[in-house]
Write a structure and sequence with these properties.
The complex is a heterodimer.
Chain A: E1 5-9, H1 13-25, E2 29-33, H2 36-45, E3 50-54, H3 62-72, E4 77-82, H4 87-95, E5 100-103, H5 108-141
Chain B: H1 2-11, H2 18-57, H3 64-88, H4 95-111, E1 123-125, H5 134-150, E2 158-161, H6 163-171, H7 175-184, H8 191-207, H9 212-229, E3 235-242, E4 258-261, H10 263-275, H11 280-289, E5 297-304, E6 308-315, E7 327-333, H12 337-341, E8 347-352, E9 358-363, E10 369-373, E11 379-383, H13 386-389, H14 396-413, E12 417-424, E13 429-436, E14 458-459, E15 462-465, E16 468-475, H15 479-482, E17 490-493, E18 509-512, H16 520-528, E19 532-534, H17 539-542, E20 548-552, E21 557-560, H18 580-589, H19 613-633, H20 635-641, E22 642-647, E23 649-657, H21 664-667, E24 673-675, H22 682-692, H23 704-716, H24 727-730, E25 732-736, E26 740-747, E27 750-757, E28 766-773, H25 778-793, E29 798-802, E30 805-811, H26 815-831, H27 842-856
Parallel strand pairs in B: 16-17, 17-18, 18-19, 22-24, 23-25
Antiparallel strand pairs in B: 1-2, 2-5, 3-4, 3-5, 6-7, 6-12, 7-8, 8-9, 10-11, 12-13, 14-21, 15-19, 16-20, 20-21, 22-23, 25-26, 26-27, 27-28, 28-30, 29-30
Classes of the chains: A alpha/beta, B alpha+beta.
Chain lengths: 146, 867
Amino acid sequence: MISIKVLLVDDEQNFLCTLNKRLSKRGMIVEVAGSGEEALEKLESFVADVVLLDVKMGGMDGLTALYLIKQKWPLVEVMMLTGHARVEVALRGLELGAFDYLMKPVDFKDLLYKLEDASMRKAYQEEKILARKRNKQKIEQSPTVY
Amino acid sequence: MGMFNWFLSRQNKVEKTQEELAEIRRSFASRYNQFRLLIQANTRAHELVAELEEALRGFKPYGMHYIQALCTRISTSIYQMIKHLNELNPESYSELFVVFDDIQNNIQAHIEPKSYVQTRELIVDIHDVGRDQADLCGPKMAMLGEVGNKLNLPISSGFVITTESFHRFMKKSGLIEEIDRQIQGADLDSREAMFQTSSKVMQLIIESSFPDDLAEAILQAYDSLCVTFGMQVKLAVRSSALGEDIEGTAFAGQYRSVLNVGREFLLSACKEVMASKYSQQAMAYRINRGIKDENVAVCVGCMVMVDAHASGVAYSRSPVNIRDENISIHSVWGLPKAVVDGSAETDEFLVSRVPDLHIISRQIAEKTEKYICGVGEGICRMPLIESDRNAPSLTDGQVLCIAMEVLRIEEYFGLPQDVEWAMTEDGQFHLLQCRPLLQVEQDMVLASKNSSLPAPYLSGGRNASPGVGCGSVFIVRKDADILLFPDGAVLVIKQALSSMAPLLGRCSAVISEQGGVAGHLANVAREFGVPALFGVKGAQSHLTNGQTITVDADGRTVYDGLVEALFNKKPRKRIMRGSPVQATLRDAARHIVRLNLTDSDSLNFKPEQCRTLHDIMRFCHEMAVREMFEFGTNDAFAQAASRQLICNVPKQFWVLNLDDGIDPKGEDRADHCVLLEHVNSIPMRAVFKGMDAVPWEGPPPVHPRGLMSVMFEATINPDLNPAGPSRFTQKNYFMVSKNYCSLQSRFGFHFCGVEALVSDRITENYASFQFKGGAANLKRRILRARFVGDILSEFDFKIRVREDNMSARLEGLDQAGMEYRLNILGYLMTHTRQLDMIMTDQVEVERRKTKFFQDFKLFNPKKIEVS
């Protein structure tokens, strides 16, 4: 399996650090950002498969960051992570296209599975779009179909 | 969908190219991935609903944060299912979002925290406080003010920082949100996490500053006290918590008091007291009692320090024996700290109230030191001079004076009282605080010399909390030992310190070398119903870690080993019963748990009929399975995906490959058949192995009445048509991928469904089984459903039976464990056919059951098949 590229966004340095280490050990390619703003900046150069996004941060809040990421990079899967269960935030996030809403403390193994699933979903979405493109080309090339 | 239409129109004209087939395969894989996410969410929702049901039973303590997190998790999972279903078919299910919103709003109404919107005084003078101010000042300060004013008892001057101030402070700059976030993120079952969360939160509060107007008001109140006294006064800063005694919960006194505080540290002392709302003890207490965090406010009483010559606690009756009306007075030299926190031995005086007040016993302890006000701030310990060490800290006259005042307070409130008092040098009584006494009903007073009991291992001490407990000894010598404390052990400590209180929810008994019945730890032990024996000399040196002992607090005796004779069976306490938190959960659960959409063939099986989240979950799951089937058997693709199963001979089963369930070699076959060995689905092979292991005996010999029953049922029940309403049920289809399989089938008159996911992600594995119908009358069908349910429950399945409808579910086993269960499910699918006919024949039922269990031995749970 190709290694998953993950962007971790959280304003808790300790958390970022530990998670970065653990995910890297599992062969993932990890970048970190301390705020929503920084995350958007990082994504310009780092082609992430999955963004793990803390919902409550100083500065830009998680939902806004989610919205902006999905606007600009619709195929990137975003997973929300929070220490404070707020159902309205969770549902709004899913509406905005988040892959899932996880609550701290999150079991590391479950987090790994989620990251795998999210990146797999991204791969399928990309394939679908590719197929659509190929298909379009074919139709254009073979007018006999009509 | 453009691609599929294109294939559809192309299909009739040309044979598919390899490339096109690959496209089809990819689209199957992508759909299957969507489906897989849906059933993952389904599994999660199942587990969460089961967790909620367990919480409703009320054995395990939890708080509002837990409920909010749990409900959010459930809603999130269900919402994801709706989303995934809509992606599988964007046209038919948007109605579900509307239904979901309605249900979600209903749940939210119950679990949303209430906000406080009164504007009231920030600070009140204690002399203006009475029982009517309990909501503003907390019951402790309200009672103190009441007694001081109505009974003319001497109380200190001072003021109360109100609930209004507390809420203002907490709401300031999102403090409360941050606190909630910290708590929610912690796993409160783990002591270490609880400990860390508690200290983090308290730190957070102490580091925040009061709103400016509040800080100013507090300091002004202090300054005007100083003006009255004509000197810089020192204050005792005490908590007065509000909201603890809803539903009769007695105040546990687990909050902080800071003594001898001057102007400089007044604000930080106040914050420290407010922060103690989140002390480990207070948090554990609320969780154990089901008290909502949001309902608890900590007011602060700031009272001028009393320069105590002697002080202590008095009970107007015995806390451990309701029929004992004697007044007990616990006393030390100096400030009452040692009495309250149980850190030292205290003098104890017993006073009888009849015929006239008179002292009936004096126990004078050896006292080595006393606490006094420090010169600057705070209090300090001072060694006692030789002559005071063994002298009574109270004269007889003082004892009687205290007893009399305590009785007045009891009379005034009409309830037994727990009174903290001080005596000044001049022999003047001062009331520090009072509260209703929590009395514990003693189950039985043991016959003193029970001959069946073994010889005591240790004896003596005082019954601090009645009852009998058994467990292995765990000696706590330092704070770090607390973290290692094993559940159910007997806590053995030197001093009955209140810092041990968080362990009381988890220990079977407490033994302390020192400490009195009047201490905080004893109070909490009584509230938790944990037997406690205090004042057992040398307990730590006589007992060894791991030794099993029985503690009989009532008999003041410790026995080696388990002494069963001392236990009369007590049912496990449902500690959450009747708590406000549990009531909230129950209200929310009404919109979550109940399953109304049980029959997927019914006309009512549609989104508008979903009344709970469970209904939505069931609906989404059923529809997703159907969508997968419809897509897979859609005319254009049927040949690509579905094949008749050949196992030696062609079977009446078809296999629909959802993704990677059939080996490429199998896919190459041109005749729309597939050999079993080319089926790559772990769960399907396990189910089929079970189905095929032992040939079916054939229909049971129907007895005439059984046959009559079938014919009768067939004429009145139009549903009894062996062929179901959709193509799905006409043929017996296995829908498979490598890790998934679903089989819905009708064998004769009954319906069977098995579904399973088996992969190396153990937490996602599950097997579910449904079974309903039959040809015999309802009674026999119900009997068969129960018969099958009983068998499956022996293999760890969770069973629900409603009429003749049985469902079984199992989660979280590894591959070998799952395969073994699937073998059994497969076996039962084959061998319970038409068994409803014989269900009233006990002998025959027993014979079958014995044979079943004999046959199950064919399936070795240890062996892992290589696929």
